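I would like you to sit down with the record closing this message with an eye to the fold:
=====
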Amino acid sequence: MNLIKIVIVGGGFAGINLAQKLSKDKRFHITLVDKNNYNFFPPLLYQVATGFLEASNISYPFRKFFQDKDNMHFSFGAFRELFPAEKRIATESGDIYYDYIVLATGTESNFFGMENVKKNSVPMKTVQDALALRNHILRQKERATKIRDSSERRKILSIVVAGAGPTGVEISGMLAEMHKRIFKKDYPELKREEVQIYLVDALPVVLNPMSKKSQEETLEELRNLGINVLLDHAVKDFENDVVTFANGKTIETETLIWTSGVTATTIPGLPKEVLGRGKRVLVDRFNRVEGFDDVFALGDICLMNTDEKFPDGHPQLAQVAIQQGKNLAHNFGLLIDGKPLEPFHYTDKGTMAIIGINKAVADLPGLHFKGFIAYFLWLVVHLFSLIRYRNQVKTFYNWIVAFITRDQSLRFIMDSKPDK
C-alpha cells in the first residue's frame, strides 16, 4: 500500500499535535520540517530569560519524540519556498515532495517598520532570544557595579518592556520580583531606586484580550510591584540608548524588551491573494488554504473567518493551534476514507496571566479568579501543557524550589562573547 505523504512545516503547538495524532494512522508517512531540532514551549520563555528555568525544561528534541514512530521522519533545516504546482518544498536540507502539506510556521516579532527598534531591542520569540536576554540583563548588572556615576548607572539598570500583553506583563512582573527579592542580595553595591522597570503600551489598557476586571487588577498589582506602567505610549524609535514615544516623551535605557506585536512568517511560493491582515494565510473552515486542495495552514499563521463565534479570525493563542492540529489530523483520516470533513470550531478555555509570586489573573468561561487561586491554575495549566513527562517533572521541581526559597540559582552568563 502506498503511504500518503504529509509534510508539516513547523513543530510548534499546531505542528506537533498534528504529527502526534497522525502518527497513529499507519496509512500516512509524516515528515516534520523545522529550523530547530527541538520543540519548545513559548509561554515559559520569560522564565528562561529571568533564570528561573533551564532552556531544557521547556524544550524537547524532535528525534527523541519520534523514536518509536516508524511512520515519522524529521528533516532539520529552515523552510525556503513552496512550489505547489510540483508538490514540492525547498528547505536548507534539500527538496521534499508531498501529497499534502501543512504550514504551521507561526509568527515572528513585528517591529512595525521601525528599523532601529528591530536592530537594538531584544525580542522574546525563541529560546535563543530568552538566553540572550538573560545574558544581557546579568551583564548590565555586572557593568553597573563598576560605574560610579549615578545617572549612567540608572540608564544601564533601567529596563523598558514594550507590549502589555501576557508576555510583557509576565516578564516585567518577574523582573520586579527579582529586583525586590534577589538582585538586592546578589548586587549589594546597587541601590534599589536606581533600578527602574517600565511597562509601556500604545493601548490604554494592559492585557487587552482579557476582561476589564483582570485589566484593572493587573494594573494595580504591577504598580504595587514598583513597575512604571505607561499606557497610551507608542514606541516610535530606539536609538543612542533613548526610547522615543509617539507623544514626544523619552526614556534613557540600554535595554528595550520587545513583546509588542507579531506578524505571520512569510511563506515564499504562496500567492499574495491568499494573505490577509498581518500576513496571515486565508483558510476555509477545514484549514485548507484558499484556492488549494492539498495545502493547509494551522495556528498563528492562518486566518479563518468561518467560525461563527470568531468572524474576524481566531486569537493567536496556543489553544487555537492545538485544537486546529487535532481537528486536521481527524480530517485527514476522513479525507482518505472519502468522508465529509468536519469544520473547525474553537472552544475558548479561557485566558490567564501571571504577575508575580502568588499574583495572577484568570478569565475562564463564566468565571474570574485572581491572586493565589489564579496563580495555582496558571501553574497547573502550563505544567501539563509541556509535551513530555520529563519536562513536567524538571519544571515542577524548579518551581517548588523557587516558591520555597523565593530564589533560583540559574543566573549564569553563558554566551560566546570573548573576554575583553
Remarks:
- The radius of gyration is 22 Å.
